[in-house]
Amino acid sequence: MRPLLRWTVALVLVIGAAGWAVTGTSAPPDDYAALTGDAEAGRVTFALAGCASCHVDPEADHSDRPVLSGGRRFASDFGVFVAPNISPSPQGIGDWTDTEIMHAIHDGVSPTGAHYYPAFPYGSYNRAEPQDLADLVAFLRTLPPSDAASAPHEVSFPFSIRRAVGAWKLLFLSDEPILTDPATDQIARGRYLVEGLGHCGECHTPRNALGGLDHDNWLAGAENPGGEGRIPNITPGALNWSEADIVAYLDSGFTPEFDVAGGEMADVVLNTAQLSDEDRAAIAAYLKAVPAID
Protein backbone atom coordinates (compact mmCIF):
# COMPACT_ATOMS: atom_id res chain seq x y z
CA MET A 1 0.00 0.00 0.00
CA ARG A 2 2.87 2.39 0.69
CA PRO A 3 4.05 2.62 -2.95
CA LEU A 4 0.44 3.11 -4.05
CA LEU A 5 -0.01 5.88 -1.48
CA ARG A 6 3.17 7.59 -2.60
CA TRP A 7 2.12 7.44 -6.25
CA THR A 8 -1.33 8.75 -5.37
CA VAL A 9 0.10 11.68 -3.42
CA ALA A 10 2.54 12.42 -6.24
CA LEU A 11 -0.26 12.34 -8.82
CA VAL A 12 -2.42 14.68 -6.72
CA LEU A 13 0.51 17.10 -6.36
CA VAL A 14 1.21 17.04 -10.10
CA ILE A 15 -2.43 17.64 -10.95
CA GLY A 16 -2.65 20.39 -8.35
CA ALA A 17 0.49 22.09 -9.69
CA ALA A 18 -0.78 21.88 -13.26
CA GLY A 19 -4.15 23.29 -12.23
CA TRP A 20 -2.45 26.13 -10.37
CA ALA A 21 -0.35 26.93 -13.43
CA VAL A 22 -3.17 26.98 -15.98
CA THR A 23 -5.53 29.04 -13.80
CA GLY A 24 -3.06 31.90 -13.38
CA THR A 25 -3.41 35.32 -14.98
CA SER A 26 -1.73 36.74 -18.04
CA ALA A 27 0.30 39.93 -18.36
CA PRO A 28 -1.15 42.84 -20.35
CA PRO A 29 -0.03 43.18 -23.98
CA ASP A 30 3.01 45.39 -24.50
CA ASP A 31 1.26 47.51 -27.13
CA TYR A 32 -1.21 48.95 -24.59
CA ALA A 33 1.45 51.30 -23.25
CA ALA A 34 2.00 52.84 -26.69
CA LEU A 35 -1.63 53.93 -27.13
CA THR A 36 -2.94 57.44 -26.49
CA GLY A 37 -6.61 57.70 -25.67
CA ASP A 38 -9.07 60.29 -27.00
CA ALA A 39 -11.46 61.28 -24.20
CA GLU A 40 -14.16 62.57 -26.58
CA ALA A 41 -14.19 59.30 -28.51
CA GLY A 42 -14.12 57.54 -25.16
CA ARG A 43 -17.33 59.30 -24.11
CA VAL A 44 -19.23 57.31 -26.76
CA THR A 45 -17.37 54.11 -25.90
CA PHE A 46 -18.27 54.69 -22.24
CA ALA A 47 -21.95 54.92 -23.17
CA LEU A 48 -21.80 51.80 -25.36
CA ALA A 49 -20.11 49.81 -22.59
CA GLY A 50 -22.80 50.85 -20.09
CA CYS A 51 -20.31 51.68 -17.34
CA ALA A 52 -22.61 54.18 -15.62
CA SER A 53 -25.51 51.74 -15.59
CA CYS A 54 -23.63 49.51 -13.15
CA HIS A 55 -21.17 51.77 -11.36
CA VAL A 56 -23.20 54.86 -10.48
CA ASP A 57 -24.51 54.73 -6.91
CA PRO A 58 -28.07 53.32 -7.13
CA GLU A 59 -29.36 56.31 -5.15
CA ALA A 60 -27.68 58.88 -7.42
CA ASP A 61 -28.92 60.45 -10.63
CA HIS A 62 -27.26 59.81 -13.96
CA SER A 63 -25.57 62.78 -15.59
CA ASP A 64 -23.14 63.65 -18.37
CA ARG A 65 -20.37 63.43 -15.76
CA PRO A 66 -21.42 60.52 -13.55
CA VAL A 67 -19.73 59.69 -10.26
CA LEU A 68 -18.74 56.04 -10.54
CA SER A 69 -18.72 55.33 -6.81
CA GLY A 70 -20.21 51.84 -7.16
CA GLY A 71 -22.53 50.13 -4.71
CA ARG A 72 -25.13 48.61 -7.00
CA ARG A 73 -25.91 45.00 -6.06
CA PHE A 74 -26.39 42.19 -8.56
CA ALA A 75 -28.00 38.94 -7.41
CA SER A 76 -26.99 35.69 -9.09
CA ASP A 77 -27.02 31.94 -8.51
CA PHE A 78 -23.47 32.27 -7.19
CA GLY A 79 -24.02 35.08 -4.70
CA VAL A 80 -24.41 38.85 -4.73
CA PHE A 81 -21.88 40.91 -6.64
CA VAL A 82 -21.41 44.56 -5.74
CA ALA A 83 -20.19 47.07 -8.32
CA PRO A 84 -16.93 48.68 -7.13
CA ASN A 85 -15.81 52.29 -7.16
CA ILE A 86 -14.16 52.90 -10.56
CA SER A 87 -13.87 56.68 -10.29
CA PRO A 88 -10.46 58.34 -10.78
CA SER A 89 -9.66 58.45 -7.06
CA PRO A 90 -7.30 56.46 -4.82
CA GLN A 91 -10.32 54.49 -3.62
CA GLY A 92 -11.21 53.73 -7.24
CA ILE A 93 -8.87 53.38 -10.20
CA GLY A 94 -7.09 56.72 -9.92
CA ASP A 95 -3.76 55.14 -8.98
CA TRP A 96 -3.88 52.50 -11.71
CA THR A 97 -1.93 52.88 -14.93
CA ASP A 98 -3.81 53.06 -18.21
CA THR A 99 -2.43 49.63 -19.09
CA GLU A 100 -3.75 48.15 -15.84
CA ILE A 101 -7.23 49.53 -16.49
CA MET A 102 -7.25 48.25 -20.06
CA HIS A 103 -6.05 44.83 -18.90
CA ALA A 104 -8.85 44.70 -16.31
CA ILE A 105 -11.52 45.61 -18.88
CA HIS A 106 -10.25 43.28 -21.61
CA ASP A 107 -9.06 40.28 -19.60
CA GLY A 108 -10.69 40.52 -16.18
CA VAL A 109 -7.38 40.79 -14.33
CA SER A 110 -6.69 43.18 -11.45
CA PRO A 111 -3.44 45.18 -11.03
CA THR A 112 -2.44 42.66 -8.33
CA GLY A 113 -2.91 39.74 -10.73
CA ALA A 114 -6.23 38.44 -9.36
CA HIS A 115 -9.10 37.26 -11.53
CA TYR A 116 -12.26 39.35 -11.58
CA TYR A 117 -15.58 37.55 -11.44
CA PRO A 118 -17.36 37.43 -14.82
CA ALA A 119 -20.21 39.53 -13.41
CA PHE A 120 -17.82 42.14 -14.85
CA PRO A 121 -18.58 41.44 -18.53
CA TYR A 122 -15.03 41.11 -19.80
CA GLY A 123 -16.25 38.01 -21.62
CA SER A 124 -17.68 40.51 -24.12
CA TYR A 125 -15.29 43.42 -23.58
CA ASN A 126 -12.42 41.18 -24.69
CA ARG A 127 -13.63 41.66 -28.27
CA ALA A 128 -12.95 45.42 -28.09
CA GLU A 129 -10.18 47.01 -30.11
CA PRO A 130 -7.25 48.29 -27.98
CA GLN A 131 -7.76 51.87 -29.22
CA ASP A 132 -11.37 51.83 -28.04
CA LEU A 133 -10.14 50.70 -24.63
CA ALA A 134 -7.56 53.49 -24.54
CA ASP A 135 -10.26 56.03 -25.45
CA LEU A 136 -12.50 54.68 -22.71
CA VAL A 137 -9.73 55.01 -20.13
CA ALA A 138 -9.06 58.59 -21.24
CA PHE A 139 -12.72 59.46 -20.65
CA LEU A 140 -12.80 57.71 -17.27
CA ARG A 141 -9.92 59.95 -16.20
CA THR A 142 -12.10 63.04 -16.79
CA LEU A 143 -14.92 62.01 -14.44
CA PRO A 144 -15.42 63.22 -10.85
CA PRO A 145 -13.60 61.23 -8.15
CA SER A 146 -15.33 59.51 -5.25
CA ASP A 147 -13.78 58.48 -1.95
CA ALA A 148 -16.38 55.75 -1.36
CA ALA A 149 -14.92 52.39 -0.39
CA SER A 150 -15.82 49.44 -2.61
CA ALA A 151 -18.03 46.94 -0.79
CA PRO A 152 -17.00 43.26 -0.86
CA HIS A 153 -18.94 40.73 -2.89
CA GLU A 154 -21.20 38.37 -0.96
CA VAL A 155 -20.03 35.08 -2.45
CA SER A 156 -19.67 31.90 -0.42
CA PHE A 157 -17.35 28.91 -0.80
CA PRO A 158 -16.42 27.47 -3.28
CA PHE A 159 -17.25 30.45 -5.52
CA SER A 160 -15.21 32.68 -3.24
CA ILE A 161 -12.01 31.06 -4.57
CA ARG A 162 -10.79 33.61 -7.09
CA ARG A 163 -8.26 31.23 -8.56
CA ALA A 164 -11.13 29.04 -9.71
CA VAL A 165 -12.23 31.84 -12.04
CA GLY A 166 -9.12 30.96 -14.06
CA ALA A 167 -10.66 27.56 -14.77
CA TRP A 168 -13.92 29.28 -15.74
CA LYS A 169 -12.01 31.43 -18.21
CA LEU A 170 -10.38 28.35 -19.74
CA LEU A 171 -13.80 26.83 -20.29
CA PHE A 172 -15.81 29.82 -21.45
CA LEU A 173 -13.72 32.90 -22.26
CA SER A 174 -13.24 33.47 -25.98
CA ASP A 175 -12.84 36.44 -28.27
CA GLU A 176 -14.10 34.55 -31.32
CA PRO A 177 -17.14 36.14 -33.03
CA ILE A 178 -20.54 34.53 -32.54
CA LEU A 179 -21.90 35.53 -35.94
CA THR A 180 -19.11 34.17 -38.10
CA ASP A 181 -20.01 35.46 -41.58
CA PRO A 182 -21.53 38.96 -41.58
CA ALA A 183 -22.97 39.60 -45.02
CA THR A 184 -22.23 43.34 -45.07
CA ASP A 185 -19.89 45.84 -43.49
CA GLN A 186 -22.86 47.27 -41.61
CA ILE A 187 -23.65 43.90 -40.03
CA ALA A 188 -19.95 43.47 -39.19
CA ARG A 189 -20.03 46.82 -37.40
CA GLY A 190 -23.19 45.76 -35.58
CA ARG A 191 -21.48 42.54 -34.55
CA TYR A 192 -18.61 44.52 -33.05
CA LEU A 193 -21.01 46.72 -31.11
CA VAL A 194 -23.38 44.00 -29.89
CA GLU A 195 -20.93 41.16 -29.20
CA GLY A 196 -18.22 43.43 -27.81
CA LEU A 197 -18.54 46.55 -25.70
CA GLY A 198 -22.34 46.60 -25.98
CA HIS A 199 -22.31 43.14 -24.25
CA CYS A 200 -25.97 42.50 -25.16
CA GLY A 201 -25.51 38.74 -24.92
CA GLU A 202 -24.57 38.95 -21.23
CA CYS A 203 -28.24 39.51 -20.39
CA HIS A 204 -30.14 38.22 -23.44
CA THR A 205 -28.42 34.81 -23.73
CA PRO A 206 -29.12 31.87 -21.38
CA ARG A 207 -26.31 30.43 -19.28
CA ASN A 208 -25.31 26.93 -18.31
CA ALA A 209 -24.94 25.65 -14.75
CA LEU A 210 -21.47 27.18 -14.44
CA GLY A 211 -22.52 30.58 -15.71
CA GLY A 212 -21.11 30.25 -19.22
CA LEU A 213 -23.13 31.69 -22.10
CA ASP A 214 -25.04 29.18 -24.24
CA HIS A 215 -23.92 30.34 -27.68
CA ASP A 216 -26.29 27.88 -29.38
CA ASN A 217 -29.11 30.05 -28.04
CA TRP A 218 -27.44 33.40 -28.67
CA LEU A 219 -29.75 36.32 -27.76
CA ALA A 220 -32.69 33.92 -27.32
CA GLY A 221 -33.67 35.32 -23.91
CA ALA A 222 -32.78 34.27 -20.39
CA GLU A 223 -33.96 34.12 -16.84
CA ASN A 224 -33.55 37.38 -14.96
CA PRO A 225 -30.84 36.81 -12.32
CA GLY A 226 -32.74 39.17 -10.03
CA GLY A 227 -35.70 36.77 -10.13
CA GLU A 228 -38.25 39.11 -11.68
CA GLY A 229 -39.61 38.22 -15.11
CA ARG A 230 -37.57 37.07 -18.08
CA ILE A 231 -35.14 38.90 -20.32
CA PRO A 232 -36.62 38.71 -23.83
CA ASN A 233 -35.58 36.85 -26.94
CA ILE A 234 -34.26 39.47 -29.40
CA THR A 235 -33.52 37.15 -32.33
CA PRO A 236 -35.74 37.35 -35.45
CA GLY A 237 -37.56 34.29 -34.11
CA ALA A 238 -39.32 36.44 -31.52
CA LEU A 239 -38.59 40.09 -32.28
CA ASN A 240 -40.65 41.03 -35.33
CA TRP A 241 -39.77 44.71 -35.36
CA SER A 242 -38.31 46.23 -38.51
CA GLU A 243 -34.79 47.62 -38.52
CA ALA A 244 -36.30 51.12 -38.40
CA ASP A 245 -38.34 50.11 -35.33
CA ILE A 246 -35.19 48.87 -33.57
CA VAL A 247 -33.29 52.05 -34.42
CA ALA A 248 -36.12 54.20 -33.07
CA TYR A 249 -36.31 52.15 -29.87
CA LEU A 250 -32.57 52.42 -29.25
CA ASP A 251 -32.85 56.18 -29.68
CA SER A 252 -36.05 56.99 -27.79
CA GLY A 253 -37.05 53.91 -25.80
CA PHE A 254 -40.47 53.82 -27.49
CA THR A 255 -41.62 50.52 -28.99
CA PRO A 256 -43.73 50.14 -32.16
CA GLU A 257 -46.63 49.23 -29.81
CA PHE A 258 -46.32 52.66 -28.13
CA ASP A 259 -44.88 51.14 -24.97
CA VAL A 260 -41.69 52.43 -23.38
CA ALA A 261 -38.50 50.76 -22.18
CA GLY A 262 -38.51 50.01 -18.47
CA GLY A 263 -36.30 48.48 -15.81
CA GLU A 264 -32.66 47.98 -16.72
CA MET A 265 -33.44 48.43 -20.41
CA ALA A 266 -34.27 52.06 -19.71
CA ASP A 267 -30.63 52.52 -18.67
CA VAL A 268 -29.50 50.76 -21.85
CA VAL A 269 -31.52 53.17 -24.00
CA LEU A 270 -29.94 56.13 -22.20
CA ASN A 271 -26.65 54.72 -23.48
CA THR A 272 -27.63 53.72 -27.02
CA ALA A 273 -29.26 57.14 -27.52
CA GLN A 274 -25.73 58.59 -27.37
CA LEU A 275 -24.53 56.50 -30.31
CA SER A 276 -24.61 57.73 -33.89
CA ASP A 277 -27.55 56.97 -36.17
CA GLU A 278 -25.18 54.78 -38.18
CA ASP A 279 -24.23 52.67 -35.17
CA ARG A 280 -27.84 52.22 -34.08
CA ALA A 281 -28.64 51.10 -37.63
CA ALA A 282 -25.70 48.69 -37.51
CA ILE A 283 -27.02 47.16 -34.29
CA ALA A 284 -30.46 46.76 -35.90
CA ALA A 285 -28.96 45.12 -38.99
CA TYR A 286 -27.01 42.69 -36.81
CA LEU A 287 -30.10 41.73 -34.78
CA LYS A 288 -31.97 40.94 -38.00
CA ALA A 289 -29.01 38.83 -39.22
CA VAL A 290 -28.49 36.52 -36.23
CA PRO A 291 -30.10 33.06 -36.42
CA ALA A 292 -33.78 33.05 -35.50
CA ILE A 293 -34.66 31.07 -32.38
CA ASP A 294 -38.29 30.48 -31.48
Describe the protein's architecture and organization.
By secondary structure, the chain is mainly α. It folds into 2 domains: 27-172, Cytochrome c-like domain (Cytochrome Bc1 Complex, Chain D, domain 2, Orthogonal Bundle); 185-289, Orthogonal Bundle (Cytochrome Bc1 Complex, Chain D, domain 2), CATH 1.10.760. Helices cover 40% and strands 4% of the residues. It contains 12 helices and 4 strands; from the N terminus they run αααββααααααββααα. A two-stranded antiparallel sheet has the order 1-2. Strands 3-4 form a two-stranded antiparallel sheet. The radius of gyration is 20 Å and the shape is globular. Residues 5-22 have low confidence and may be disordered. This is Fructose dehydrogenase cytochrome subunit.
| Assembly level | single chain
CATH class of the largest domain, please? Mainly Alpha
Shape: globular
The largest sheet, given as strand count, sense and whether it forms a barrel, is:
2 strands, antiparallel
- CATH architecture of the largest domain, by name, is Orthogonal Bundle
Structural class: mainly alpha
Number of contiguous helices: 12
Mean pLDDT figure? 88
Strand order of the largest sheet: 1-2
Question: What share of the residues does DSSP label as strand, in percent?
Answer: under 5%
- How many β strands by DSSP? 4
Number of domains: 2
- What is the fold named in CATH at topology level of the largest domain? Cytochrome Bc1 Complex, Chain D, domain 2
Proportion in helices: 40-55%
Q: Cα-atom Rg, whole angstroms?
A: 20 Å
Low-confidence stretches: 5-22
